[in-house]
């Protein structure tokens, strides 16, 4: 009997290992050779990437059970009662700096005649099994991926499913000239058929010139991983994007920490910040900012116009779906911060005299 159970457990374990190695959505863990390369990063400590400041993520049984309990409770406001309205985006390319937000963190930025896609998660749900469960609030997007223009570069902040989506990458990869990613993330893309020469990996504070733009891979306080066994295997980051007439900061995912002031002192001021706002909870506030901290982070980097992102598409936390933007708008007004709240698909001219501020989420 004992031998039978040992065989069953062994078969299950082997099956799981095989599945994780053949199922493409999981991506690819760094090889031993790649790990030796990554180990040269100051952020790579004791076999994985780590934040420079203490980051509390309580994974105790008590906390885990409390999270499961809270998620299991019925709440009518975790999703909108009806799909939010969307605008048809403008893909017209000129020399102006424009941004189109597609929900969550996915955005299209055009600057100095170049087209950049930021964390282009266009899929149904942020999961390795996207056909399960409730998906995107809007049900879809206000465009087809085939309608996107040629993309000069895709910028990725990290490899979580709500930022790096296998299905989206497979549909748009033929349109992309270059992928700019934090250390280690290129392995996922290579597994998905993207040529290594089309991928460039960067560490924090690395600076580069791309098609006339000045970019910098900058810190964030977060973590990475696409399975149970690769936490911290790749780096996470934010991005500085500077053109001839404007400068943009994209926060990626991050808890509030001193790096925002460091970035502001080194690269600020910014004409626009795309700042994480949503999917927060006091139990994991070290890796996701609270809405009021979103506004403070904008001030820290010396931002002019704030657009809250990381909300409006998926339910990944327990708060009401529109709580984050409501609180961020209130905090922005209290601090005299210019804030724009575009609808999904609405294109904003960064140098415009006025910005959309209608509370469409109410």
UniProtKB/TrEMBL annotation:
Lineage, top-rank taxon, reads Bacteria
* Reactions performed catalytically: 3',5'-cyclic CMP + H2O = CMP + H(+); 3',5'-cyclic UMP + H2O = UMP + H(+)
User: Where do the Metallo-beta-lactamase domain residues begin and end?
Assistant: 116-311
Name the Gene3D superfamilies for this protein. Ribonuclease Z/Hydroxyacylglutathione hydrolase-like
Which portions of this protein are annotated as coiled-coil regions? Answer: none
Q: Which UniProt keywords apply?
A: Membrane, Transmembrane, Transmembrane helix
SUPFAM superfamilies noted in UniProt: Metallo-hydrolase/oxidoreductase
Q: Where are the transmembrane segments?
A: 6-24
Reported function:
Counteracts the endogenous Pycsar antiviral defense system. Phosphodiesterase that enables metal-dependent hydrolysis of host cyclic nucleotide Pycsar defense signals such as cCMP and cUMP.
Matching PANTHER family, A to Z? N-ACYL-PHOSPHATIDYLETHANOLAMINE-HYDROLYZING PHOSPHOLIPASE D
Put simply, this protein is called: Membrane protein
What lineage does UniProt assign to this protein's organism? Bacteria, Bacillati, Bacillota, Bacilli, Bacillales
């Amino acid at each position: 009997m004992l031998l039978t159970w040992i065989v069953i457990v062994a078969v299950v374990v082997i099956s799981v290992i095989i599945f994780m190695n053949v199922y493409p959505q999981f991506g690819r863990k760094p090889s031993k050779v790649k790990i030796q390369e990554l180990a040269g990063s100051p952020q790579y400590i004791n076999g994985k990437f780590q934040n420079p400041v203490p980051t509390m993520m309580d994974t105790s049984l008590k906390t885990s059970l409390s999270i499961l309990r809270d998620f299991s409770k019925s709440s009518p406001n975790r999703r909108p009662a009806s799909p939010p309205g969307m605008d048809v985006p403008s893909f017209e390319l000129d020399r102006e700096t424009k941004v189109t937000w597609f929900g969550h963190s996915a955005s299209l930025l055009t600057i100095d005649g170049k087209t950049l896609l930021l964390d282009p998660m266009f899929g149904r749900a942020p999961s390795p099994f996207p056909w399960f469960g409730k998906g995107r609030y809007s049900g879809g997007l206000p465009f087809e991926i085939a309608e996107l223009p040629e993309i000069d570069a895709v910028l990725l902040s990290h490899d979580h499913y709500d930022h790096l989506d296998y299905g989206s990458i497979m549909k748009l990869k033929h349109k992309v000239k270059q992928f700019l990613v934090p250390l280690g993330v290129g392995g996922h893309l290579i597994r998905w058929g993207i040529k290594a020469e089309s991928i460039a990996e960067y560490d924090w504070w690395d600076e580069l010139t791309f098609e006339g733009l000045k970019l910098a891979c900058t810190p964030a306080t977060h973590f990475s991983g696409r399975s149970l066994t690769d936490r911290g295997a790749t780096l996470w980051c934010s991005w500085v994007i500077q053109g001839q007439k404007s400068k943009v900061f994209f926060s990626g995912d991050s808890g509030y920490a001193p790096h925002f002031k460091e970035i502001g002192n080194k690269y600020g001021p910014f004409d626009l910040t795309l700042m994480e706002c949503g999917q927060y909870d006091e139990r994991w506030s070290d890796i996701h900012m609270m809405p009021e901290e979103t506004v403070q982070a904008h001030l820290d980097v010396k931002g002019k116009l704030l657009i809250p992102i990381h909300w409006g598409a998926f339910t990944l936390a327990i708060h009401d779906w529109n709580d984050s933007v409501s609180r961020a708008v209130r905090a922005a007004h209290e601090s005299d911060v210019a804030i724009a709240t575009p609808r999904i698909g609405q294109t904003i001219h960064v140098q415009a005299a006025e910005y959309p501020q209608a509370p469409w989420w109410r």
